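About this split. The held-out portion is used to measure sequence recovery: a designer receives only the structure tokens and must propose an amino acid at every position. Recovery is the fraction of positions where the proposal matches the reference. Here is one held-out target exactly as it appears in the evaluation file.
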């Protein structure tokens, strides 16, 4: 029996492998001057039947890669990239009949967790995939990947849906087309990329011994405000969820005792290991020095023979003979 959200997803999307949905997704009646007029939450059944723009992600996961191709150049680039097998066929494209601009969607076979329960490896791979596809297809860097055009026939003829691949993709499938050596941009622009950038930054912050005992959330809020992004900072709810996820990771880590006493003990232990290592390395030489001294050779003669200083030879003899 599907969950409450799943049972209200359109049968076409469920058949294509859309794994889950939001029980009360964000919706909008469309754009004005390039911006969504307003967005609000409604029950899932109502959202997919009535609204032109719907939130595809669920409450706890990204369920697909969504790009906004808002120029003729980016639409041509998509056609060329699919034809040249540089990107796989999308699951669907919702195209504006008037402008030709479109939203393109590749569904994930397994949703990528976000927020408090986020897993690091899938997030990193999803961010890499999202950032590469956006860059390769010249998609709109200001698109937040939250609201997407509803692929169902609710647009009154103003948009048309082109259905493509009828099965979802694994992240590794989508990543296969990324060229070897390609690097994620320093300033990420996609929703999952920006989320992942803050997540990674806060993991590094939490891993510093000087931040032991400090709450992650205030630092995450400050870091979010400093993010160099034309879209502005992430929503506060996302930052809170990221901070909770980082705290969950940090609770499993073991940090060294940074008290002066503990630091001193670690330094002395390192010195002892260093002395023991040197002695083991020079054990054969030191044994020959002691034998030469016992046989009656002078310390100065021994020093010349082994290329050491006389005080050095004396120290070895005193240590091993007493």
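Reference sequence for scoring:
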């Amino acid at each position: 029996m599907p969950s409450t959200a799943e049972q209200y997803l359109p049968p076409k999307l469920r058949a294509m492998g859309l794994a889950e949905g939001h029980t009360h997704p964000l919706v909008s009646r469309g754009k004005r001057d390039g911006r969504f007029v307003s967005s609000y939450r409604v029950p899932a059944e109502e959202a997919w039947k009535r609204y032109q723009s719907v939130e595809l992600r669920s409450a706890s996961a990204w369920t697909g890669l969504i790009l906004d191709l808002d120029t003729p150049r980016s639409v041509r680039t998509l056609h060329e990239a699919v034809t040249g097998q540089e990107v796989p066929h999308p699951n669907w494209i919702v195209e504006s009949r008037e402008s030709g601009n479109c939203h393109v969607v590749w569904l994930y076979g397994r949703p990528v967790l976000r927020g408090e329960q986020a897993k690091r490896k899938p997030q990193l791979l999803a961010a890499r995939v999202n950032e590469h596809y956006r860059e390769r297809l010249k998609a709109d860097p200001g698109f937040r990947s939250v609201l997407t055009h509803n692929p169902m026939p609710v647009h009154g003829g103003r948009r048309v849906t082109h259905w493509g691949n009828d099965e979802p993709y694994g992240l590794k499938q989508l990543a296969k087309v990324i060229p070897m050596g390609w690097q994620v941009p320093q300033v990420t622009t996609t929703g999952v990329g920006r989320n992942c950038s803050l997540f990674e930054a806060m993991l590094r912050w939490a891993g510093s011994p000087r931040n032991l005992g400090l709450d992650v959330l205030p630092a995450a809020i400050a870091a979010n405000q400093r993010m160099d992004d034309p879209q502005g900072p992430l929503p506060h709810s996302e930052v809170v969820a990221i901070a909770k996820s980082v705290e969950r990771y940090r609770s499993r880590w073991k940090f060294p005792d940074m008290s002066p006493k503990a630091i001193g003990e670690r330094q002395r232990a390192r010195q002892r290991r260093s002395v023991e290592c040197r002695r083991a390395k020079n054990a054969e030489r030191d044994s020959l020095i002691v034998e030469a001294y016992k046989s009656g050779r002078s310390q100065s003669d021994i020093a010349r023979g082994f290329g050491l200083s006389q005080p050095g030879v004396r120290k070895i003899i005193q240590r091993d003979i007493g």
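Annotator remark: The radius of gyration is 31 Å.
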